[in-house]
């Protein structure tokens, strides 16, 4: 199973260094080894970002003049909501790459991203609810922002159900990619919902073209937490992809060699 | 410290939000690590069995 790999990388090397690098990254044994080496470093960076972000957000940042201390939920709510959309973009793009170029690694990344994205979406909804209750007086309203974010959760769950229902992984990946690409229309709806419709949800705080309407001492921890969530995604994604690779390549020579080494 | 934990009266909202987030984020990291360790152990057992049985 692993012999075509070397042929593949030789022929692609002739086609140019970029293409060769792309093919190499897409090769499961190479990616497995590389990700194993990178994982601890991303883990350390992630822990540092969380430590500084939480300290800045919970301790250093001043109390909000309107919302009191309840606004501190922003430091997990907004990063989780951003990630819920970013991971969906990754899901759609890797799904598309898998559809067009049949790149196995892209399919694996899409499959591994779905549960992580679903958990960020769940967190965005839950922390939003816990923030909405004291500020709006209700846990939930069926407005555009909240409803479109809930639809995002259902898109993730639908994708995961599809993966679980189809035994053949490559067929499952193609079906999932179509679902993910169709669901992309939901992303601009989520983002612009607070501008297009009247809603209880506050408008954008950070992602505006003019000055962000947030003090620097509040903004810096928020950006650190956003970075921490991104690193968390990288670490959980790499960990999941490594498991998927090991599982699907279990009968190959390189996995056998790996088992002998350790 | 008590003042910090009280969160200006919003402790009942702020801390559950942070608590559940911590649990979900940590589970996201631990579950795949555990799964891979389990898989490695399983594959190693199969490989050992095959060496023990000799070539087919």
Describe, in short, the structure shown.
Chain A is mostly helical. Chain A is 78% helix and 0% strand. Chain B is rod-shaped and about 70 Å long.
Q: What is the subunit organization of this protein?
A: heterodimer
The shape of chain B, in one word, is: rod-shaped
Radius of gyration of chain B: 23 Å
Global mean pLDDT of chain A = 88
Low-confidence stretches of chain A: 1-10
Work out the largest interface and the residue count of each chain. A-B, 37 and 26 residues
Strand content of chain B: under 5%
Helical percent range of chain B? over 70%
What string, H for helix and E for strand, traces the elements of chain B in order?
HH
Q: Helix-strand pattern of chain A, N to C?
A: HHHHHHHHHH
Note the overall shape of chain A: globular
- β-strand percent of chain A reads under 5%
Helix content bin of chain A: over 70%
How many helical elements of chain B? 2
Structural class computed from helices and strand pairing of chain A: mainly alpha
What is the tally of beta strands of chain A? 0
- Biggest sheet features of chain B: none
- Poorly predicted tracts of residues of chain B: none
């Amino acid at each position: 199973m692993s012999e075509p790999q070397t042929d593949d990388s030789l022929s692609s090397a002739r086609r140019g260094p970029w293409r060769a690098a792309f093919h190499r990254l897409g090769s499961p044994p190479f990616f497995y080894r590389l990700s194993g080496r990178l994982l601890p470093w991303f883990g350390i960076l992630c822990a540092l970002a969380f430590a500084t972000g939480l300290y800045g957000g919970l301790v250093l940042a001043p109390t909000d003049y309107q919302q009191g201390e309840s606004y501190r939920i922003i430091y997990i709510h907004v990063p989780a909501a951003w990630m819920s959309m970013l991971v969906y973009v990754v899901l759609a793009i890797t799904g598309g790459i898998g559809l067009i170029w049949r790149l196995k690694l892209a399919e694996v990344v899409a499959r591994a991203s779905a549960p992580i994205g679903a958990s960020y979406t769940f967190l965005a909804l839950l922390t939003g609810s816990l923030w909405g209750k004291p500020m709006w007086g209700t846990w939930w309203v069926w407005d555009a922002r909240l409803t479109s974010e809930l639809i995002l959760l259902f898109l993730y769950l639908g994708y995961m159900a599809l993966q679980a229902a189809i035994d053949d992984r490559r067929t499952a990946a193609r079906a999932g990619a179509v679902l993910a690409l169709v669901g992309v229309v939901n992303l601009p709806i989520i983002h612009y919902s607070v501008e297009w419709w009247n809603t209880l949800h506050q408008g954008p705080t950070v992602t505006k073209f003019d000055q962000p309407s947030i003090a620097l001492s509040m903004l810096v921890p928020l950006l650190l937490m956003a970075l921490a969530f991104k690193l968390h995604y990288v670490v959980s994604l790499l960990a999941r992809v490594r498991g998927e690779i090991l599982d699907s390549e279990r009968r190959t020579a390189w996995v056998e060699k790996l088992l002998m080494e350790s | 410290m008590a003042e910090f934990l009280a969160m200006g009266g919003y402790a009942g909202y702020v801390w559950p939000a942070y608590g559940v987030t911590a649990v979900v984020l940590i589970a996201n990291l631990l579950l795949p690590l555990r799964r891979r360790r389990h898989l490695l152990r399983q594959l190693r057992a199969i490989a050992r069995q095959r060496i023990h049985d000799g070539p087919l």
